[in-house]
């Protein structure tokens, strides 16, 4: 499949035939993956890139894109500026991936971020599910407040957590002899 504006985006080295090119780019532009329109667009005069962590391939690629977009939205910059700024947040090997994209093949930040996340998919953090909460228990000699803190931290890693599952898992994990478990169970039996 050829790359370019088609719905399928491929890396140059992943296809048998050469990438179709707009009129041959000048020598200094060869290998530049952003479209002519993006490359030629002017940056805002007051644009100052905020400090983002450089992506080194070891973290969650989706989280990196999210943090980058959040920073760019705070600066109120356009899709074009986001495209141009993104590669400045990549370390050496990850920047090599960016340069390996077909010349002039990127036309939007959505396309660029989609390709980035697909390429670095193995680095994504796996989200936990609600069943993982059922395995949490209050450790011997662990304070109830620490267990509550640990439990709440774990719930933040679960998407669309049902409140009844959360409540059941929390009660199930409490040490039955703790004062906190006694108070919670007493309140639950009264319906308060």
From TrEMBL:
Residues 85-174 form the Retrotransposon gag domain. It comes from the Eukaryota. InterPro entries: Retrotrans_gag_dom (IPR005162). Pfam families: Retrotrans_gag. This is Retrotransposon gag domain-containing protein. It comes from Escallonia herrerae.
